[in-house]
Amino acid sequence: MAIYSSPRLLIVPGLHDSGAAHWQSWLQHQFRDAKRVVQRDFSQPDLARWSARISSTLDAAVGSSPDGEWIAVAHSFGCLALAHHLAEHPDSPIRQALFVAPAEPDKFGLAELLPHHRLHIPSTLIASQNDPWMSAASALRWASRWGASFTNLGAVGHINTESGFGPFPLAKRWVDSARAKAARERRPQHTSFQEWSFAV
Questions:
Q1: Residues of the chain with pLDDT under 70
Q2: CB-CB contact of 154 with 119 (8 Å)
Q3: Where are the domains of the chain?
Q4: Model's pTM, two decimal places?
Q5: What percent of the chain has pLDDT over 90?
Q6: How far apart are CA 112 and CA 140, in angstroms?
Q7: For a pLDDT cut of 70, what percent of the chain falls above it?
Q8: What CATH number is given for 8-199 in this structure?
């Protein structure tokens, strides 16, 4: 009997990385097979380079991920890099994505470089009512463009360490649900004896 493992978790941090107290670091420690995208320079928001780094991280991890499937959890500018990667690579092994508190593309002059259409995988966007990096209205517009389900957590800032987010159980629940759903979908459907008898 074949064993079907759940997709691995890919963490995509934003500017200046996510420190030890950040919820992304906490989430990474919840899954021993998780992988983190490490940018060459976390202080320089270069969309193309950050997007390419996602691709190279996935390529490098192929040997340790026999099934080759992933779910990705991104924060802030990392959300923009992930959306760009998914648009540029429709064959990406990422099968579900969680965007948390995206940075406003217009702050970086990048809006036209991002997808303005539905992404090819299921996704969820979590935003805040008073995020200084993106308004709730803009977050809802981008969620609609990408075909992502949308959740507004209220007045919780940028959903980072500074706004009080160390452990983030909601993100873990999303990952657990995404992994379970993917595992169910990959489980082969066995034809019953009765169905086989009618088939012949």
A1: 1-5, 63-67, 187-200
A2: no
A3: 8-199
A4: 0.90
A5: 82
A6: 17
A7: 88
A8: 3.40.50.1820
